[in-house]
Amino acid sequence: MEELRITAGGHLGPIDSARVPRYSGAATFARLPRLDQVDRTDIAVVGVPFDSGVSYRPGARFGANHVREASRLLRPYNPALDVSPFERVQVADAGDMAVNPFNIHEAIETVQANALELTADGTRLVTLGGDHTIALPLLRAASERAGSPVALLHFDAHLDTWDTYFGAEYTHGTPFRRAVEEGILDTEAISHVGTRGPLYGVKDLEDDRRFGFGIVTSSDVFRQGVDEVIARLRDRIGDRPLYVSVDIDVLDPAHAPGTGTPEAGGMTSRELLEILRGLRGLNLVGADVVEVAPAYDTAEITGVAASHVAYDLVSLMADNLTPPSKES
Ligand SMILES: N=C(N)NCCCC(=O)O
Ligand SMILES: [Zn+2]
Ligand SMILES: [Zn+2]
Question: Which cofactors are required for activity (predicted)?
Answer without folding.
Answer: Mn(2+)
